[in-house]
Specification:
Helix content is 41%, strand content 16%. It has 249 residues and is of the alpha/beta class. The chain contains 12 helices and 8 strands. The protein has helices at residues 16-27, 46-52, 79-84, 95-100, 105-117, 130-134, 138-150, 155-158, 179-194, 198-203, 217-221, 238-246; strands spanning 5-9, 36-40, 58-62, 87-92, 121-126, 162-165, 205-209, 228-231. The protein has one domain: Aldolase class I (TIM Barrel). Strands 1-2-3-4-5-6-7-8 form an 8-stranded parallel beta barrel, surrounded by 5 helices. The structure holds phosphoenolpyruvate.
Length: 249
């Protein structure tokens, strides 16, 4: 059985008030017992979130991390620091970081290794652009992104990685992949992993991301290879995020 995860990526949004609203709502919310749910707020809200979520099932994630522990890297934050704030997960290779900050597969790999090194579960984000999909290159692009990282890990490291398939054309656009489109790519990722190890592939947790909301989550999460969601816009509305979590049982 793969444990479902619903991860809310606030990006550069949110406020102390929103953190507190999540704390209040989730302290009394009934969630499916097997579900893991996490919020990935901007760094300045981590401490407030740690306190506000203490009596809730919500865990904490980071949106990125620097591969190094410390040093002369103005503006950067290391995994070791995030760990001190109770961070359990970190996104690596989100398409906004790949596109806006030119993060390469190699840098994504370094960040992922850094997360593993401090016992933070990395959520490796992969996905194709609309041009790549229209050109018929979806699987090639996705498997290059997955393969670059996974092929460089030891088997016991691979077991600790979560993969989020996020078609770039579906992120923040309101245009969701159909459950069939998402399932097809997820199955392809799982098959690829089976090439390393069948048991590992069967245990690999795969999330879908891209305009997931309270209305479409249940259908996406019902797909056999989709084990959870990475939610952007809808994770900024406490009732919507709760509804998504409740549909993941
Ligand atoms: C994301 O940022 O990872 C994401 C999936 O965003 P949205 O849900 O807004 O498309």
């Amino acid at each position: 059985m793969r444990t479902p995860l619903i991860a809310g990526n606030w990006k550069m949004n949110g406020s102390t008030e929103l953190v507190e609203a999540f704390g209040r709502t989730f302290s009394s919310a009934a969630l499916p017992s097997s579900l893991e749910a996490a919020i990935f707020p901007p760094y300045p809200y981590l401490e407030a979130a740690r306190r506000a979520f203490a009596e809730t099932p919500l865990r904490l994630g980071a949106q990125t991390l620097n591969p190094l522990h410390s040093g002369a890297h103005t503006g950067e934050v290391s995994g070791r620091m995030l760990r001190e704030f109770g961070v359990c997960y970190a996104l690596v290779g989100h398409s906004e970081r790949r596109q806006l900050y030119r993060e390469s597969d190699e840098q994504v790999h370094d960040r992922l290794l850094a997360a593993l090194g401090v016992d933070i579960t990395p959520v490796l984000c992969v996905g194709e652009t609309l041009e790549e999909r229209d050109a018929g290159h979806t699987m090639q692009v996705v498997l290059r992104q997955v393969g670059y990282v996974m092929a460089r890990l030891e088997p016991e490291q691979r077991e600790r990685v979560i993969i989020a398939y996020e078609p770039v054309w579906a992120i923040g656009t309101g245009r969701t992949a159909t459950p069939e489109q998402a399932q097809e790519v997820m199955a392809g990722i799982r098959d690829y992993q089976a090439g390393f190890d069948r048991d590992l592939a069967a245990a690999l947790r795969l999330l879908y991301g891209g305009s997931m909301n309270a209305g479409n989550a249940a259908e996406l999460l019902a797909q056999p290879d989709i084990d959870g969601g990475l939610v952007g816009g809808a994770s900024l509305k406490v009732d919507d995020f709760l509804a998504i979590c409740q549909s993941a049982g």
